[in-house]
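Limitations
The structure tokens in this dataset are predictions for the assembled complex, not deposited experimental models. Users should treat interface geometry with appropriate caution, especially where small molecules or nucleic acid strands are included. An illustrative entry is reproduced here so readers can see what is and is not provided.
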Amino acid sequence: MKSYIIEKNKLESLLDYFLKKYKVYGPIKSGADSKFDEIKSINDLHLDYSSTILPPKKFFHPSRQILFKFSIQKEKYLIQEDFEDEKFILFGVHPCDVYAILKLDKFFSGEFKDSFYRNRRKNSIIVALNCNQPGENSFCKSMNAGPFLKEGYDILLTDIDTKYLIEIGSNKGKKLIEGLGLAVATNRDVAEKQKKCKISDRKIKKILDPSWLPKLAEENLDHEIWIDLGERGGVADSFPCLSCGSCSLVCPTCYCYDIYDTLDLSLKHGSRIRELDSCQLLEYGEIALGGNFRKERKDRIRHWMFCKFGAAAGGKNSNCVGCGRCIRFCPSKIDITKVAKELRRRK
Amino acid sequence: MLNEYYPSLAIIKEIKKETYNTNTYSLKFTDSKFIKNFSWNPGQFMMLSILGVGESAISISNVDKDNLINATVRNVGNVTNSLFSFKKNDIIGVRGPYGTGWPLREIKGKDILLIAGGMGIAPLRGVIHYIKNHKEDYGHFEIIYGARTPEDMIFKYELETWMKIKNSSLHLTVDEIPSKNPFECKIGLVTSCFPFMNTHHSNAVALICGPEIMMRYVAKCLETIGFADKQIYLSLERRMKCGIGKCGHCQIGINYVCKDGPVFNFADIKPFIRPL
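Predicted assembly:
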């Protein structure tokens, strides 16, 4: 499909055009960090961000979702369903996060299709932004998930100094900018993008060979590294894991959730809710009468790492995209790339 | 839009007291369409829900004529405790059936060794009924059933019909017999019945269900008497929240117990069955 360009000072008119039709979520400044939130005008937008705190997963698989509401009558239950229908644009998503969304797409479209996720996904348009500022913890290049995007976008922007290169990836995207009269991109603009891509590649300092990961998981179920990581002094300058669950919270491919019921004060009306859960928490593997299949901290951190290596039940759909958030937010400074390298070294 | 988490409603048609803390509930969908289309395999489970309390994965212990679903429940947690306050003709929520069930078709022509511990007999009861009705398809049929005390044994009223199955044998064992309650069975773990077993491993498969620690030792003992890992099937317990392979709680290695199990071939999951 054709590519277009837009001058940076014209971005406002493009955004205003989007805002007229849809709700727009994008990166905004939040203290010293940035987060995805609703954009009301161009002034909110903070496109020079490196990585947000929470991934855009929250728009499709929110931390708290009402599955259905019910009221308990004297002799029967009344159940009503609850579906949202808000159409929205996700603006300025980085490639690692788009790849993570693609993984969740596959996961939630398996044998049992998750209507809540798919409904939100259907109502969304992804305007991605190629990443010129990979952070110090990013290793997206190694995981084949960035820093430049190849698939999964409706519209893709690339910052080429004074302008943005606009590429279209789907009919949804094509329709969105139809009739805007954007200037067609020249070969020089496209060449400029390639140049930017190479510069961005070189900024990534963390490197990992992902082809090893599933094998590492298979062979090292009882490796002492898990005891180091869980109970002893940690691995490669880290402290031992605290089982706080931060890594799952900020991971763009962590999907696990808990389901529970709530009742209001009348004890007659309530809802069944699903809420994001983490395999790092003690209650996760608990069964009736107090048994627990992952009682030890080392078992839980191992399970999480294997899941990100692509060797848990979620398979390739839950494996790592290299966004680096878990490294950034781990209070014990545990670094998944260092653990993988250490596993290989200590064989 | 289809909501996978939306339970169908079912009436409790009958409550049968099995032991002091175990009941069998006969459930009938209120919607006749569900009754007509219902199909199941022994070993599958349902998500029973009590609105306002929560959901729990309960195995189907049998399906009677008219698709009356039997769920045998032990009172051990929030949902099951609440279920015990329910009476005949009360309504509960039901989703399912989920999971794969026992490989009854694949093991045709083999001798069947069925080992159950405590509540583990519930998901195997369907197998017993199936084999009773299709005895000509299978070889020797041997049941070893262990429980804590004779009082903890469920389906006692069926033991006599199980004993009468042609070309079969039944061993009962308990950990202890309280003096007041004399009952004809051995004392010891299920593995203590192995010396008296008629099944030879050469053309047999073992179907095991019980607490995971029991299954681990049973599998180990079966290996010492010649069973290969591939000849052993076991049904696992995990905490399932969704039942449809999404929520993640029941993961074991690269499998979901709810979707890829709960019945597994021992060879597939051996590294993950380990001390709690």
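Some entries come with short summary sentences. For this one: Chain A has eleven helices and twelve strands.
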